[in-house]
Amino acid sequence: MRRRAAKRALDLALLLPLVPLFAALIGGLALVVLVGQGRPIFFRQARVGVGGRRFGILKLRTMTTEADPKDRRPTRLGAWLRQRGLDELPQLVNVLVGDMSLVGPRPLTPADAERLSAAYPPFARRFDVPPGLTGLAQICQAQGVELTAELDRAYVLRQSATMDLAILLRTAWMNVVGKRRGALRSQLPWVRGARAGTS
Predict the structure, then answer these.
(1) Would residue 198 count as lying in a domain?
(2) What is the extent of the structural domain holding 21?
(3) Which residues lie across from 55 on neighbouring strands?
(4) How far is it, in rounded angstroms, from Cα 64 to Cα 62?
(5) Are the CB atoms for 109 and 47 separated by under 8 Å?
(6) Are the beta carbons of 103 and 135 closer than 8 angstroms?
């Protein structure tokens, strides 16, 4: 509980002074989405947080609007927003109200959380901490359930204010240059640390 309280204090200390900037940025991007691809501007979806608690996230819409979700595809603008992680910015509201942290495992839909935890039980360790706007698996561009679970576990074991700041700085760099160019080149030290159970 003490670690979670310290993490919450860090989130607010970093975020509150920048609320006007982020509000202007989200408002500007929302206008771009409205002009570029029309309504709806935002996409809302249920996700699973710490301890399995459900909450709703908000994202800028990046997909087409066909009635059947299987027919939907990323728009050109949506693909650009996704590549830089800008579609996730409205989730700063979730951080402000305490549903999420700035750093942590990305929140899953209830269906994905149940399916992946059943298929690979170590995946459930991610629910020991609040989900994040960005995380270790994201800056490593992890592919696959096993590697993602290992990196999420590494974060749970080794989390600290220094680690959160490093992940945030790397995320900011990825937003500037794109996810592929900005991602960490190797996940192996983190995976080894998780498997060894180090902290």
Answers:
(1) no
(2) 2-193
(3) 47
(4) 7
(5) yes
(6) yes
pLDDT at residue 190 in the model? 60
Q: Say if 119 falls within a structural domain.
A: yes
Q: Has residue 199 been placed in a domain?
A: no
User: Using CA atoms, how far apart are residues 112 and 109, in angstroms rounded to an integer?
Assistant: 5
Q: What percent of the chain has pLDDT over 70?
A: 92
Task: For residue 93, tell me if it sits in a domain.
Answer: yes
Containing 151, the helix (H) or strand (E) segment is: helix 145-158
Q: What pTM was computed for the model?
A: 0.85
Pull the structure tokens for residue 75.
Answer: 């728009």
What single string gives the DSSP state of each residue in 155-199?
HHHH--HHHHHHHHHHHHHHHHH-HHHHS-S--HHHHHHHHHT--
Q: How many Cβ atoms sit within 10 Å of the Cβ of residue 44? A: 11
pLDDT in tens, 132-159: 999 999 898 888 888 888 889 889 988 8
**Within a 10 A sphere around the Cβ of 155, how many other Cβ atoms?**
26
Residue 175 confidence (pLDDT): 80
Q: How far apart are CA 22 and CA 31, in angstroms?
A: 14
What's the pLDDT band for 189 if we cut at 50, 70, 90? low
Query: What's the structural domain count of the chain?
Result: 1
